[in-house]
Description:
- 0% of the residues lie in helices and 59% in strands.
- Strands 1-2-3-4-5-6 form a six-stranded antiparallel sheet, with no helix packed on it.
- It has no helices and six strands.
Amino acid sequence: MTVSIGTRTLSSRTNGGRAYFNLELCGAPPRATGGDVLAYAKGKRWTGVGLSFKVTESRGTFVARGINGSRGTARGSFRC
């Protein structure tokens, strides 16, 4: 399952200054077994690996920890 919001450009460092959010989950809902987050805001990139997921086919919550130089923890929810 993939949730993408915003515009993705060819610039992997800054995404051309455009906002973008991508959440990819492994495993079919409601048993997501892993996933990752890629986000761009104000020309900065953040990547994280999933720590926990609660997902149905149309909504969910996630917690991800920053990796590869990205710091902190991201928490969020989505509804499609």
